[in-house]
Specification:
This protein is α+β, with helices and mostly antiparallel strands and about 450 residues long. The protein folds into three domains: about 160 residues, no CATH class; about 150 residues, no CATH class; about 80 residues, Resuscitation-promoting factor rpfb fold. The chain is built from eleven helices and 27 strands. Strands 13-21-20-14 form a four-stranded antiparallel beta sheet. A three-stranded mixed beta sheet has the order 2-1-6. It has a three-stranded mixed beta sheet with strand order 4-3-11, covered by helices on one side. About 5% of the residues have low confidence.
Length: about 450
Amino acid sequence: MKKSGIFLAFISLMILIMIIFVFPTKAYADGTEDRICNGVFIDTVDVSGMTAQEAKEALKRHIDELRKKSFALVVEGKTIIVTMEDLDYSFEPNNYIKQALGLGKSGNLIKRYKDSKDIEHGKKVYPLTFTYDENKLRKIVEVDARSYEKAPKNASFSRKNGEFVYTDHVLGFKIEVEPTIEAIKEKLDNWNRMDFVVHAVTSEVEPEFTREELEKCNSILGEFTTEFTSSSEDRAANLANGARLINNAILYPGDIFSSLSYLLPFSLENGYYMAGSYNAGRVEQTIGGGACQVTTTLYNAALLAELEIVERYNHSMTVSYVDLAFDAAVSESAGKDFRIKNNTDMPILIEAFSENKKITFRIWGHETRDTKNRKVKFENKIIKEINPSSKEKITYDPTKPSTYRVVTQQAKKGYYAELYKVVYENGTEVSRELINKSYYNAEPAHVTIGSKKN
């Protein structure tokens, strides 16, 4: 018994010596700096045997690697690559390294040893709580993803060979922002550290006007024709060209039609020729001369269609193809345009053509007016007539003899005139509205006299 007791005491002493001298070496390495015991992980990072600084650097490398990973946001076949760095992916502040350093270092030596062995065999894991910037995620969806949205396209129509030709509408799509953000957050909040794909949630967008709607726009709202029987071939060609350029223009509700945007440029390349036009009181040859008769004809068709007249100018002098105040001049150099607005609830189509020395405009749309009991007429009123000066405007031609005298431009009277829209219901006048006030300059005769010296 005595020998047995001595042996047990010896064994206990040896264990104590191992605890004092061997275990501390394993737990604290070189004894100069605290190190984390074996079997400790922060997230998936094994920080066993690391100092606080080493563990901090290991975690930084870990999050840097995670921030390089990405996911694909697919928008109807288009792909946006988003890295975790784009979202400021990181983890919430914590004191896990400090806690890890404290493992196996509390209590007596035997408890420390036991705790360390338990950790080493059982594995201690500190889970990180990851974060990302939801505002940046929202911006990616609301700005980047929505840039791929496709606007719907209205159906369109035209006139060809006296019949309507229709082009079907095209559906668009839009991003459903909130469901898309939630789908991404679901992936991020349960991320397995692998790249992933999210399909943006989209919905179809129908256009405002389908083919079925356009098929209702089959009534002539306004039609007008002017003649140019005395015009030169070049001026006639300019009118035909102007009609061609404007023909089949479509105005959806609220759209504003600009004549110059369709007619310009006035150039030979755009189909125009040299023809007469007003300039500073005289008729001069310019490229595109006669374009004002195009816009004048359209003006009268627009009046009959009761469209809103946005911009209109009278000529500087009277014209022969319409009565006073029924004209609409355009001039690129003077900044004069003729513009109308579709103030109806449906699209309108402008049909224009020239034949047999006549130019015609038809405005097609959906007729909602009471055409049976309601009638609209336009009446002009001459406010003042101005006689031209008797003093002729003389141009001397040194190539002609002194006996040469030719009137190159007849004298023109000037006028103040007004245009009124008169509405009748059941044959009774119910309204009279002033549409425009027009002023036309008086111009004396222009005469060329020879000044050649004998």
